[in-house]
Amino acid sequence: MNNCIIGIGSNINPEQNIRKMICLLSKDHLVRKHSSWIKTAPIGITDQDNFLNGALRLETQHSREEFNQYLKQLEDRMGRDRSLPKFGPRIIDLDIVVWNGEIVDEDYHTRDFLKNSVDQLL
Q: Which of 2, 25, 106, 112 lies at a C-alpha separation of 20 to 30 Å from 9?
C-alpha cells in the first residue's frame, strides 16, 4: 500500500466540488484525513474567484504514475477544461504532493497555503 498526500483545490462551486471529489476518491482509496480548508487568492490570472484549497492523506494500491493518471481522469470526469489557461478557473485540481513520505511537488516549497495544508497531515 502506498501512502500519499494530495493537494486539492477549486474555485468553481468549491465546497460542492471538493466534497464530490472526496466521495469519488473514497470509492477506490482509503481516505485517512483531510487538512483544514483555506481560501486563497488566484495565482497568475487574478480576475477570477478565490480558490478553496486543502490536502488529503490517503492510501492507494496504485503506483505513483498510475495514481497520477487516475487523478487526471477524475479531474476530467468532474468536467475540468484543460483548454483553459494554466492558472485559469478550475472545477477541481488534484496534485500528488507527498508520496510515501517524500515531497514530490516543488509547489510545496513555494506556496505557503499548500505547505501549511500538507504539514497538518505529516
A: 2
